[in-house]
Amino acid sequence: MLWTLASGDTAKDIAEGEKLLAEGRHRAFKLKIGARELATDLRHTRAIVEALGDRASIRVDVNQAWDAATGAKGCRELAAMGVDLIEQPVSAHDNAALVRLSQQIETAILADEAVATAYDGYQLAQQGFTGAYALKIAKAGGRTACWRWPASRRRQGLACTAAPCWKAP
Fold first, then answer.
1. Considering only CA atoms, which of 35, 15, 31 is closest in space to residue 23?
2. Of these residues, 12, 30, 32, 73, which one is catalytic?
3. Whether 102 contacts 90, CB under 8 Å
4. How buried is residue 25: exposed, middle or buried, by Cβ count under 10 Å (0-12/13-18/19+)?
């Protein structure tokens, strides 16, 4: 199961990750980045990747924060430091940049906000997107629609994830 390290405080996030690893509770972590300057986010991510090392899978969610040029630079740096997955680095409306990143970066690019429906995912695939897709069950038209679409993508060798999209009050 994926655990989000989202305090933004590097030392605190490392300590939390170390604790969860030591307890055997989690080995996969997601960092929320994109709200700060690129260099700051890259330093934060690199420190966590180096601290947790080969014991953990580190993924980042950029939350559409970067323009195409920043996305290219940021994704190259994240890939070089060993991040396992980069979620929605550019605007959900910039399919061209998302497609380019998926083709140019070795690390998996996850389309999240860009895929509200199965048709959105189909359009991305038609444009050459080679990354993974995050389908949110409520947005995708329910459980049946959400499971039907990934089956066709898997036959094409593409990856999908599904999430219930729970919200706290």
1. 15
2. 32
3. no
4. exposed
| Domain topology for 2-133 | TIM Barrel (3.20.20)
Q: pLDDT tens digits, the chain, 169 residues: what are they?
A: 889 999 999 999 999 999 999 999 999 999 999 999 999 999 999 999 999 989 999 999 999 999 999 999 999 999 999 999 999 999 999 999 999 999 999 999 999 999 887 788 888 989 999 998 887 777 767 777 666 666 656 655 655 555 555 444 3
Per the annotation, the verdict on 19 as an active-site residue is no
Domains of the chain, by residue range, sit at 2-133
* Amino acid letter for position 18: E
Full 3-state SS string of 153-169: HHHCCCEEEEECCCCCC
pTM for this entry: 0.87
